[in-house]
Amino acid sequence: MLTASRRWRRDGKSIGLVPTMGALHAGHLSLVERARLENELVVVSVFVNPIQFGPNEDLERYPRDWNHDFKMLEAAEVDAVYRPSVMAMYPPEASTRVRVGGLTDTLEGAARPGHFEGVATVVTKLFAAVEPDRAYFGQKDAQQAAVVNRLSRDLDLGVEIRVVPTVREPDGLALSSRNVYLSAEERHAALAISAALREAAGAYASGERDQARLRARLAARLALEPLVKPEYAELVDPATFRKPGTLAVIAAKVGKTRLIDNHDLEKPFPG
Ligand code: AMP
């Protein structure tokens, strides 16, 4: 990988990087397509990053299917795949972590201590290995994209961060590698998350601006599904991830599966 991207860089070719944890789906592919439009070469990394999982999270059971991923990447005609081992990324003597301040205090940062430090560290390493011009992240993980954007600017990494819209199932559920954990009943209940975002966007479009009432709408829709246990359902500023704002953000457990989704109420909800 190092050799390939150094050679490409020497040849003056632009490189777009799509970082993933594998278990690829159409959401990942939309990042690849966008990268393809804007770069001569597209690199996808596939690495289940252990340091961004908390001790009680799903690192062990996180879906891994290299045969499936390889076929998707081959069909998408990506130019290279970077798939390092955990030992190569984190040899026992490694002791450096990258921490982004401010943005990481709320929401996912508060709910998952250490998560964004794991993300910032791995992204810094991926950028160092691949030396991309641009890197592509999904709006589904909006706070992550903002953290990485801050990281690239603060450390002068010189990588342009591009955020790509969330790809959804026809019924509204945001695609996620974790959706495979859901039973049929949970899959149905999980629709409450996108439905809550859609309803809040509808209310906002009809002129509702009261933060408490918009938040109550999110909560009321989620409460219709007993299988859905919200961790947060808030309205935050899309730049700072602090209240108040127009970005509706939800994290909820559906059975044992933790799902997140978001939508900026200033935009119509798709579909
Ligand atoms: P992951 O493999 O889940 O870590 O995701 C890798 C990248 O794909 C991240 O930038 C995610 O935000 C993005 N992504 C995941 N799901 C979607 C989706 N449904 N639509 C668009 N991007 C997504």
Q: Tags for this entry?
A:
271 residues, globular, 2 domains, alpha/beta, 18% strand, binds adenosine monophosphate, 3-stranded antiparallel sheet, Rossmann fold
Description:
It is a single chain. Helices cover 39% and strands 18% of the residues. The protein contains nine helices and eight strands. The protein has a five-stranded parallel beta sheet with strand order 3-2-1-4-5, with helices on both faces. Strands 6-7-8 form a three-stranded antiparallel beta sheet. The protein is globular. The structure holds adenosine monophosphate (AMP). Adenosine monophosphate (AMP) binds next to helix 2 and strand 4.
Describe the structure concisely for a colleague.
The chain is α/β, with parallel strands linked by helices and 271 residues long.
Topology:
Blueprint: H1 2-10, E1 15-20, H2 26-38, E2 41-46, H3 66-75, E3 80-82, H4 86-89, H5 107-111, H6 115-130, E4 134-138, H7 142-154, E5 160-164, H8 184-205, H9 211-223, E6 228-236, E7 247-254, E8 257-264
Parallel strand pairs: 1-2, 1-4, 2-3, 4-5
Antiparallel strand pairs: 6-7, 7-8
Helix pairs in contact: 6-7, 8-9
Bound molecules: adenosine monophosphate.
Residues 20-21, 27-28, 30-31, 137-138, 140-141, 164, 166-167, 174-177 line the site of adenosine monophosphate.
- DSSP E strands, number: 8
Number of domains: 2
Order of helices and strands: HEHEHEHHHEHEHHEEE
Write the CATH homologous superfamily of the largest domain.
HUPs
Largest pleated sheet: 5 strands, parallel
Count, helices: 9
